[in-house]
Amino acid sequence: xxxxxxxxxxxxxxxxxxxxxxxxxxxxxxxxxxxxxxxxxxxxxxxxxxxxxxxxxxxxxxxxxxxxxxxxxxxxxxxxxxxxxxxxxxxxxxxxxxxxxxxxxxxxxxxxxxxxxxxxxxxxxxxxxxxxxxxxxxxxxxxxxxxxxxxxxxxxxxxxxxxxxx
Amino acid sequence: xxxxxxxxxxxxxxxxxxxxxxxxxxxxxxxxxxxxxxxxxxxxxxxxxxxxxxxxxxxxxxxxxxxxxxxxxxxxxxxxxxxxxxxxxxxxxxxxxxxxxxxxxxxxxxxxxxxxxxxxxxxxxxxxxxxxxxxxxxxxxxxxxxxxxxxxxxxxxxxxxxxxxxxxxxxxxxxxxxxxxxxxxxxxxxxxxxxxxxxxxxxxxxxxxxxxxxxxxxxxxxxxxxxxxxxxxxxxxxxxxxxxxxxxxxxxxxxxxxxxxxxxxxxxxxxxxxxxxxxxxxxxxxxxxxxxx
Lengths: 166, 293
Known about the structure:
Chain A is an all-alpha fold and 166 residues long. Chain A contains 8 helices and no strands. Chain A has helices at residues 9-28, 33-36, 42-53, 60-73, 80-94, 96-100, 104-130, 140-165. Chain A starts with 8 loop residues before the first helix and ends with a helix. In chain B, strand 6 and strand 7 (190-195) form a beta hairpin. In chain B, 40% of the residues lie in helices and 26% in strands.
């Protein structure tokens, strides 16, 4: 791949920071109760997106850093989210070439599988570390994540384009 | 060639992240060594948290400024009525308090500890849906300490678990990992309530088949464990289910405090006050009330 078509690392950093920040805002926003459990896992979506479009730059390390940041902000046990997001980034990285040629529906399904695995892993680990139990409602947000994926993908593509031009 | 190199690189990244994460999980779940770094990071990241709560704050501002006048009038009338009711009640309370003190003196019992109250504004609620946390804008600077009790005007909210320089984190009683010592107001039966993760549901475990507990009983804090002053309302029993062949009965309760609705909470600190301190505090509170106006 010619290097001119890739975003420079500076603009990539800006793009990732902006999208992670927006995901953070969306995560802590106050919700009506009917939407509460179905609210997507925004951070996972953002990490999966960047791991998909920039697999050479955004990998396990970046996922781990974002996860650790989350653990500080949400006062959770260290290590769980970092490892979960690193795993998600790693899986998406290694399948990114296949994922990119899929139609949007097929992409939605595979993202559902990956984010579901991420949720299973983090839920299980926080069960071991912090005594968390996975309830049925825990899985509802997976539905929200899958439904929102195409829209999030288009918006993030717009963001990437805007950042690259600048 | 280049591709296989890249693959190996990704694997090595992943394996190193795995090792670091497992180490962090083990250390953080067994010891408190990582609390220092966490506090430093949380101070560094506090601007992000502030920025992240800007949209919610702006929304709250607009809903409060764009309230229709009749609504405001109704709210004002309600507050006014409540004010006069409370005022008259507090007149009565003062004589009762004196009487109580005299009686305690007659019995040679120790004085009931006075609690110092700090008003704090909520900064963030529901940080995480499986992990109920509330953060308030009072920290080390305001003398907040870990284990401090938090109430609102109706009842118990929870306790402070983490204190940072400018803010602190409260675990509400509805957090799945939180248990709280209570007793039944009617007969003094002591037990605990557990959070379930739902804002309106608490569980009361370990009550025998023959325990005297009824739907509608008020659970008040029992003061066991020394963390929380006794006598504050915590929850109302909503359901008592007796299932044969089970050692314990299934009791559920609903918190009295407006956990998802209050904007301000009160932090109680336990300390015995001398007459002089009381006077000073009265002066300070008068000062504060001027400042609020």
